[in-house]
Fold these 2 entries.
Entry 1:
Amino acid sequence: MAQKETNGSNGDHISTRPPPTPSPLRFSKFFQANLRILVTGGAGFIGSHLVDKLMENEKHEVIVADNFFTGSKDNLKKWIGHPRFELIRHDVTEPLLVEVDQIYHLACPASPIFYKHNPVKTIKTNVIGTLNMLGLAKRVGARILLTSTSEVYGDPLEHPQTEAYWGNVNPIGVRSCYDEGKRVAETLMFDYHRQHGIEIRIARIFNTYGPRMNIDDGRVVSNFIAQAVRGEPLTVQRPGTQTRSFCYVADMVDGLIKLMNGNKTGPINLGNPGEFTMLELAENVKELINPDVTVTMTENTPDDPRQRKPDITKAKEVSGMGAQDRPAGRLGAHGG
Ligand SMILES: NC(=O)c1ccc[n+]([C@@H]2O[C@H](COP(=O)([O-])OP(=O)(O)OC[C@H]3O[C@@H](n4cnc5c(N)ncnc54)[C@H](O)[C@@H]3O)[C@@H](O)[C@H]2O)c1
Ligand SMILES: O=C(O)[C@H]1O[C@H](OP(=O)(O)OP(=O)(O)OC[C@H]2O[C@@H](n3ccc(=O)[nH]c3=O)[C@H](O)[C@@H]2O)[C@H](O)[C@@H](O)[C@@H]1O
């Protein structure tokens, strides 16, 4: 079939190839909900909050597929046994056959210490896992959203980062299994979109924080809070002037749902442009939680990005997605 594409830099790539038709099984007599939604990685931090939000809509049926590497059933315990909810222990590096209308593809360890723990598995999850989910989307005619990352910009030489920036990424470093893995995942999404007409959405998520972060997964917000609560020194990795921009998880989930249901393919940056140095963050946590703790400088890890701040102009264009644009206030303002 003839196919025409526009490949604009404004997040609205359009393939004129019609999307695949839903499988007839989707409309079997067991079908009840208006929308059946698969969330891979739904037992994790962001995924479980996304499931909570999706389940609020009584017309949704939600299926979670997760291998529980970094996620936990505990995050979903309030939904286990619910008639509109199913939990499958499944590794996305293996094919999955389910009849769904939308796929939120989150499965991937996100904390640097976990994704570096088994880098070959991490890249398999990003590449083979995304291929499998795209194959599923093609077979059943589902729309698929990938949670990519600000790490696709690597150690960015442009600041703040717009979606048009191609990044500065080390292809052979210890973070490459994750950042290059996500870059390949984005490539696969666009190839399936152009070649097969799959309806795709790509979110480039910037550092997100909130309840259910693993206390011991090494991410900076949970590390500092846990250290402050225990009365231990806050470990700022050198030089401490590196920056990050932190988004509250409820805002992230709203952004993901709006992106999925809007008409832009992305990639679209999702995050809060409020930018902190790690030293500022430590001082902030200290002041809010335990003014008696000290701040200590420790060794950093290779290829740590020196600055990161999203340009969220495009996110704001997707109707009502300004929720991420919180003032660059104190992290505690959300009580998360
Ligand atoms: N949290 C952030 O700041 C952030 C930033 C950028 C991008 N992201 C992306 O968002 C997504 C969710 O991140 P998170 O912070 O909730 O991480 P998380 O580690 O809490 O959740 C990831 C989930 O995926 C599951 N998983 C991992 N490998 C899998 C596999 N092979 N098969 C099936 N399930 C698997 C884990 O068990 C876990 O439940 C990830 O794709 C991550 O790359 C997160
Ligand atoms: O938002 C993103 O795109 C990425 O952000 C994070 O990766 P990173 O920014 O390295 O997250 P942290 O491990 O929380 O580190 C943030 C900064 O804090 C510093 N840090 C970390 C831990 C600590 O105890 N002290 C400390 O100063 C690190 O050196 C780094 O500069 C996530 O964990 C990735 O999954 C995600 O894709």
Entry 2:
Amino acid sequence: MHDNLGMTMGMFIHDEVPTDEVERREKAVSALADSVRDLVDATIRTTVADDELAAVRAEVDGLVARLRTAQLPGPAGVRYNSEGRSWNWGNAVVGRGNAVAPPVDIVHDGFGSAYAEMTLGAAYEGPPGMVHGGVSALMLDQIMGETASGFRRLTMTGTLTLRYRRPLPLGPVRMEARIAHEEGRKITVEAQIGVRGEDAAVEATGLFLIPSWAPLAETEQGWSRSAEG
Ligand SMILES: CCCCCCCCCC(=O)SCCNC(=O)CCNC(=O)[C@H](O)C(C)(C)COP(=O)(O)OP(=O)(O)OC[C@H]1O[C@@H](n2cnc3c(N)ncnc32)[C@H](O)[C@@H]1OP(=O)(O)O
């Protein structure tokens, strides 16, 4: 097996957990991540006294120690069961268990087209009161990658070109992506992110590649997922 293939396909882990159990666990993990996200926002914005900060820190350290008593050996990866349910709770954008992720719910309205609406708060600040340019790129890369892949094939970002047209204020945002062109292993996706109903703040064009070492055809059911919508 090609090294890259081993590494990448290795992230798709067959985990024969029944779907109802995945869903129960997902709810529990999401609820904790929501609270941790709230903790991040509260940490950024708190003005409590230093001794209170130290006391809160001690409690947080205690909670971390409890979670560390049972851990995966590495990152969460993408898991799937033979019922076709997949879950990627660690993903930086859509990961339900990742407090660093907003998280984003991407809606696939047919193959080759997707949109998402989410709120980017204080944790995503770049210029004062504005979304960090790298965060916009991160959000766009995810929706564009998912659009290129449609959960039917493995695609990787080859080149991502961004045009920052106007600052994007923190708060509710919308992004959209669609496949513009496809030729062989190359898929061109266009996307944008901005305040809903206003002109785009950032426009993106990306070239996504089905890697030479990946199967060209639709991947075996398991790590793939049917396009939603
Ligand atoms: C499944 C669930 C969906 C999940 C969505 C997740 C969204 C997140 C998306 C990501 O963040 S992916 C992570 C960031 N990207 C990477 O880590 C990719 C790292 N690069 C690679 O693995 C390889 O370089 C790559 C797969 C992109 C290309 O390797 P290949 O061996 O397939 O390319 P090859 O050398 O065969 O070149 C094929 C063609 O593509 C062109 N090409 C290769 N790399 C390119 C590139 N980077 N940009 C533009 N064009 C590129 C190359 O010139 C050539 O053009 P021609 O056919 O016209 O000669």
